[in-house]
Amino acid sequence: MLTRYRVIQRLSTSISWDSSYIFLQTLRQKTHRPDTCGWDGLRYIALMPQTNLLLGVNIDHVVTLRQARYRAMPESPHAEPSVLAAALAAEAAGADSITVHLRADRRHIQDADVYLLRKSIGTKMNLEMGNTPEILDIALQVRPDFVCMVPENREEVTTEGGLDVAGQRDALRRTVKALSDNGTRVSMFVDPDLEQIRASAEIGAAMIELHTGTFANHTGAERDAEVERLCAAAELGHALGLQINAGHGLTTKNLPALWPVPHLAELNIGHHLVSRAVFIGLHGAVREMLAIMATYRN
Ligand code: PXP
Questions:
Q1: pTM: predicted TM-score of the whole model, two decimal places
Q2: Ligand 1 atom at shortest distance from the alpha carbon of 216
Q3: Which of 41, 48, 72, 119 could form a disulfide with 36 if both were Cys (CB 3.0 to 4.6 A apart)?
Q4: What is the CATH number of domain 52-293?
């Protein structure tokens, strides 16, 4: 309620009509919603949870569902659910970026999905990728806004641990340079391990994404200990000039326990949002998440 009041107050007192018009036009482009202009737009903004913490919505599992039925013909006009419709729904609900992981085994996201999203979404694209020449070539053609380098293992159900940046400095440094020179900001998905944070800064990454899997899988004293590790990692990364993101296993339930971690700029969340979407729709799931994220104080 207070947030809504603040937004209306800000719009009515401190923003000139010119700048609020530009703001509404930007929002309209961002959300693909023609109704986000005029008084409807003001109402839409007033109702949108306000947070400085950005949300990247990972839509891999929308495609997991499509592939379960249409693996042999993912581009068929009958193939559903639509990856693009999911991205646009997430954006309309307030997502700041759309994240997809193009895996070497193509178990969910396909090359065509990446190209379609790149030309169609209105927010930023974050491509998760393993450090292989094949996927790097695609990333250089697609030119996503962000790349998050992740470890990849064919046997795993999902990304299971952070990247060993310290152990692969030379190979990763070359990839980071190629992507950065091509206009993409690069992040390293790492465990909250200080050696990995230092190595990420040293090879020229702009960001780290802290792996929150251990945090998400524990409660009580074990989770508290992991929060302390995440805090130390975030402090060090920030001091080294890295943007601090986080992701893996985050839900509306466990997020408040993450809030002691300082300097968080962006969260990447997938499985929980797609799971919630089964019951309340993707728009509702993203809104619910943004409402919790609005309680983060950096
Ligand atoms: N960040 C990275 C680097 C990931 O690999 C994943 C899982 O694909 C996520 C975030 C999202 O994790 P979850 O689906 O558990 O929200």
A1: 0.85
A2: 15
A3: 41
A4: 3.20.20.70
